[in-house]
Amino acid sequence: MRNDNTIEVHRKLFRDNIPDVIRANDGTPRWHTLVDDSEYLAALHVKVVEEARELHGASPDA
Q1: If 19 and its partner were Cys, which of 2, 29, 47, 58 is the partner (CB 3.0–4.6 Å)?
Q2: Which residue ranges make up each domain of the chain?
Q3: Which of 25, 53, 33 is nearest to 8 (CA)?
Q4: In sequence order, what DSSP letters do the residues of 13-40 get, joined into one string?
């Protein structure tokens, strides 16, 4: 059972339909729209590094 007082914070870029997925699971999505290029580029850099680390750790057979 989910505790409605719990807030999860994920400072990540996400796909457009993720708020709908959260709602479908009885959640209440909250987000911040990036307002300028420097904010977007900083978030994109974090995402690229995250994906590169996942790729580096992946099995060659995957």
Answers
A1: 29
A2: 33-61
A3: 25
A4: ---TTHHHHHHHTT---------SHHHH
- The pTM assigned to this predicted structure is 0.60
CB 37 within 8 A of CB 43: no
Question: How does pLDDT run across 19-32, given as a tens digit for each residue?
Answer: 999 999 999 988 88
24-60 pLDDT tens trace: 999 998 888 889 999 999 999 999 999 999 999 998 8
Distance CA 34, CA 32 (A): 6
Stated length of the chain: 62
Sign of the torsion formed by the C-alpha atoms of 35, 10, 14 and 6? negative
Cα–Cα distance measured from residue 38 to residue 25, given in angstroms and rounded to the nearest whole number: 33
